[in-house]
Amino acid sequence: MFGAAHAQQTQMIQVGDHALETVQGGEGEYTVVFEAGFGSDYKVWGKVASEIAVANKVLLYSRAGCGNSGKSANPQTLEQAVQDLSMLLEKANINTPLILVGHSYGAFIIRQYAALNKDKVKGMVFVDPAHERLMQELKKVDYAKAMNDVALQRSFMPERFKEENELINQLFEKAALPDAGLLPEVPVAVLTSVQQHAKPELFLHEPQGVEVWRRLHNEFFAQFANGAHILTSRSGHNIHKEEPELVVNAIQQVIQSATKERQRQAYQAKVTELQSKLHTAAAYVKKGQQQKAEELVFEALAATGFDEKTINAIGYQQLGNATDMPVAVLIFKYNAIQYASSANAYDSYGEALMSHGKLKSAKAQFEKAIALATLNKDTATLKSSENNLAKLKQQHSAKK
After folding, report:
1. Phi-psi sector, 397: left (phi>0), alpha (psi -120 to 50), beta
2. Below-50 pLDDT ranges, the chain
3. How many Å apart are CA 216 and CA 222, to the nearest integer?
4. Partner of 352 for a Cys bridge, out of 56, 298, 318, 332, CB 3.0 to 4.6 A?
5. The pLDDT of residue 352
6. How much is the CA Rg of the chain, to the nearest whole Å?
7. First vs last Cα of the chain: how many Å apart?
8. Which regions of the chain carry the CATH code 3.40.50.1820?
């Protein structure tokens, strides 16, 4: 399925009264879950999944009644499809964050699942997704042609999919999906086919129909704050088959954005926790418990894992507030101890001490900074430290 390096066997996983044909492969921080379009099995994703599985965990499956998956005794409604997906992920022991990829009708399924499982989903890719208001909008343009599309679809529908197809048509008639709540605020990609058909059989494929399709996709994409909308005229509805590289690139872009967002959230959580500890340390200083304050600040900074530059920036933020100055001095002291070979750490510590009125101690830090900067040919820090030392001497003279 994924080539020699990533070959995987299909397995049948029981969900309720039926089993779903499933394939898993790859390793990575996320699990990319592929949801096929109506009537399609997992194999339609072959070209895309083989690329994604190189650096990510993937899960593909055939929905009930598709491929070798069993048929449920329950009507195959959208709600049932989402329930099957939920059970499948649980039975397959998928515990990593999810990137959901859905084609056509599969977009309805990943939308509903994501709305119900916001904490689990970290990104979504919609491949020429179905839109619930499609028939409503086509009817506004040309009612007779829109109804003819429905009749044609019914005429070529295989018998085994007719019942499910009518349930989906009911969604289009209502022009709305079941209310599952808002989608999560995650990175997304929407891929839209705007291919012109030489001899369109369906009204949907005529220029007016394509324009409706494009407009609905534009409106759908507009709800997201982080993502990309990719249009292609080279592929028809099955972009993942005709231009798999577009889908691969879109998934990789969403994964990269999701990773950056998770890193940002993790950083912000650390900063929030650190600020709480620094606030406590400030209270210790006011009570005259200087040693206790220093121990707390040092412990809190070490726990963040932040580098010298980040800690320095936090120190200067604290230094800007007179009430937080004693804690700022402790932050810079930590940096000077932790990064004892850094001229900049001593220079910044000296600035904090000078701001706090501890001129003698500040002078010692500037002299250390000058010595290190000279040794390391760090001209920028050398100039800063020399200037700071000159300022300190002026302050000292002014006090005499």
Report:
1. alpha
2. 3-7
3. 10
4. 332
5. 94
6. 30
7. 82
8. 4-263
- Counted residue by residue, the chain has a size of 400
Q: DSSP assignment, residue 61?
A: E
Where, residue-wise, is CATH 1.25.40.10 in the chain?
A: 306-399
Distance of alpha carbon 400 from alpha carbon 397, whole angstroms: 5
CA distance readout (Å), 60 to 19, 22, 26, 258: 14, 6, 12, 21
Which H or E run includes 20?
Answer: strand 18-25
Please tell me the CATH code under which domain 306-399 is placed.
1.25.40.10
Q: What is the pLDDT of residues 80-132, one digit of tens each?
A: 999 999 999 999 999 999 999 999 999 999 999 999 999 999 999 999 999 99
User: What is the distance between the alpha carbons of residues 230 and 227, in angstroms, rounded to a whole number?
Assistant: 10
Per-residue confidence (pLDDT) for residue 307, from 0 to 100? 96
> What pLDDT shows up at residue 2?
52
Q: Residue 398's beta-bridge partner residues?
A: none
Q: What is the Cβ-side half-sphere exposure of residue 89, based on CA atoms within 13 angstroms?
A: 25
Read off the amino acid at residue 184.
Answer: P
Please name the residue ranges forming H helices in 234-342. Answer: 239-242, 244-286, 290-304, 308-319, 325-338
User: Is residue 175 within 8 Å of 132, Cβ to Cβ?
Assistant: yes
4-263 carries CATH number 3.40.50.261: no
Give residue 3's pLDDT: 45
pLDDT at 347: 96
**Separation CA 203–CA 212 (nearest Å):** 10
pTM: 0.84
Query: 170: burial class by Cβ within 10 Å (0-12, 13-18, 19+)?
Result: exposed
CB 159 within 8 A of CB 174: no
For residues 119-138, b (16+ Cβ closer than 10 Å) or e, as one string?
Answer: ebbbbbbbbbbbbbbbbbbb
Q: Strands 98-103, 31-35: parallel, antiparallel or unpaired by DSSP?
A: parallel
